[in-house]
């Protein structure tokens, strides 16, 4: 599932796309298909820096969208703030993928917008971790659990905040096995300070658990760069990209690194 995003031309999308892999024929050739899903109801505005998670409840499946950033609303835009962005309102949007219906929900526990946070889902719960607030220009150590019950008629959504969150934004998360275990790496503590440590996250029936891990031995390019970004590249693996600075003779603009983590199952094997 792909929703929204920002293009190099600074255009922001509100579209939802469904990606699927098709395997047909005697050679079992894999074909990647992309189809736009038409949405009706309380459709969220165009945005980027948000999260979209899948939950399962009562034998049903739905998607939860939260957070993000967008341009100043049209009626408030002036020549001076034309390209200014704001955090989207802290509403939770629930998608019914079968019919394309969307409903918006306001929860008293979610009173501030946030962007570039992380979300992890397990069954009927979604956890929101960290994020950046453009209003306060800060990364509060947020952690809250959203419970979604897909009841007959209208859904029931409740939110529980916790006080053991992580101050982080724009981080990378990779899953480390069939169970609900993940590793968080990359991202920022402050605008001028990258988050160099790594954290293991475990979801179970009791809740969410964090454990600090020993970070890899970062290369000088990674350690000294002011910015970095990346994404998951498979189980226990992630890609990180850092800009090449001070090398005018180089035609490439970024260095790409793969980070691999050894899971407990690998160690036992």
TrEMBL record:
<dbReference type="GO" id="GO:0043565">
    <property type="term" value="F:sequence-specific DNA binding"/>
</dbReference>
<keyword id="KW-0479">Metal-binding</keyword>
<dbReference type="InterPro" id="IPR015915">
    <property type="entry name" value="Kelch-typ_b-propeller"/>
</dbReference>
<keyword id="KW-0863">Zinc-finger</keyword>
<protein>
    <submittedName>
        <fullName>Recombination activating protein 2</fullName>
    </submittedName>
</protein>
<dbReference type="GO" id="GO:0006325">
    <property type="term" value="P:chromatin organization"/>
</dbReference>
<dbReference type="InterPro" id="IPR004321">
    <property type="entry name" value="RAG2"/>
</dbReference>
<dbReference type="GO" id="GO:0008270">
    <property type="term" value="F:zinc ion binding"/>
</dbReference>
<dbReference type="GO" id="GO:0033151">
    <property type="term" value="P:V(D)J recombination"/>
</dbReference>
<dbReference type="GO" id="GO:0005634">
    <property type="term" value="C:nucleus"/>
</dbReference>
<dbReference type="Pfam" id="PF03089">
    <property type="entry name" value="RAG2"/>
</dbReference>
<keyword id="KW-0156">Chromatin regulator</keyword>
<dbReference type="GO" id="GO:0097519">
    <property type="term" value="C:DNA recombinase complex"/>
</dbReference>
<dbReference type="InterPro" id="IPR011043">
    <property type="entry name" value="Gal_Oxase/kelch_b-propeller"/>
</dbReference>
<keyword id="KW-0862">Zinc</keyword>
